[in-house]
Every structure is written in structure tokens, then in C-alpha cells.
Amino acid sequence: MANAIEAVIYGVILLSMLTLFWSICAVHFIHPVNLRVNHGECDRCARAFETVFQSSLTFAQQVIAGDSWGTVTIPIIEESPVTAVFFAAVFLSINLTLLNVLLAVIVDNALKSSESDASIVKQKDDDRKTVQKRLRDLFVDLDRSGTGQLSQQDVAKGYEESELFRNMLSKMDIKPEDMGLIFSILDTDQSG
What we know:
EF-hand-dom_pair; mainly alpha; Ion_trans_dom; about 0% strand; Helix Hairpins; transmembrane
């Protein structure tokens, strides 16, 4: 999560620097054209690119928020069509920066989630191996005849006498009445 926040912070810094750069350029190149445009009833349009602050505010409104693009920009492009290249560069660079920041955050979170999933799977596998080893050792203890085989009576007696065996089965939600089913599952050669 910290990496995602770091990516967002760098993205905001980059976005601010890009907006500042384009705002300075707009004061020098767009404002003179904007002075020649009759904006009619739009109060803010005439001063939209008058200062770096006004230009930054205009770009935040138009490019980042996507508001009033046509109110300010279209009359300027109609007055001087070459300004379309400038506005396209502003729009593309700022939007691509935003998209890249969002993509970086998404990819970072996906990688973290994947790493977390892998560690959970590994932990479950380790737990399974530990339980298998414990059960194997427990079954050796339950084999009192030393034949290497357990009868259904050995398993039932082990359940009654071995607290460890009872606890392990209890953790797996296996009750005494399930012992016959457990034995039939474990009795792969059907020898009883």
C-alpha cells in the first residue's frame, strides 16, 4: 500500500509540474490570442490564460476535471487554428500522466495481492505437510501390533485413548460417529 501511495504522490508532483509548465507556455502563447477573441457573456474566459495561476486553474478545470473545454478553448482555436496543436499537447500529456499514475497504482496493488496470495498458498501447503507428518507419526503410535497396518478397532481405540489424535480430528471437525467413514477413506486396499 505504501508503494501505491508513493506512486500517487509522484504522480501528483509530476502532474503539478506539467500543469505549471503548460500554464507558463499558455501565458506566453495563448493569452495574446485570447485577447483577440470576443467571449461574449463568459466572464472568466478573457482572463483564463492571463497569469500562470489563471492558466493552471483553467487547465485544472478543462483537462483534469473535463469541464468547460469548449467555452474557453474552442473560440481560441477558431481565432488561431495553430493553437489546436498546443491544446492537444496539453490534453494528451496531462491525461497520459493521470492514466500512467492510475495504472501504476493498479499494477502495484495487483502485484502485492499476488504476492500475498502466494504466501497464503505456501502457508497452507506447509500446514498440510506438518499435519500429514503428525498424522503419520500418530498412526505409527496407534499401530500397537507393529504390523504397519491399522485396523478399524485400532483407529477407534486411538480416538478414545489419544488426546492428540482426538484434538487433531476435532480441529478437522471430525466427530466420533465419523470414525467409520474416516477409516473407510483411509482403508485404500479395503483390507479392513
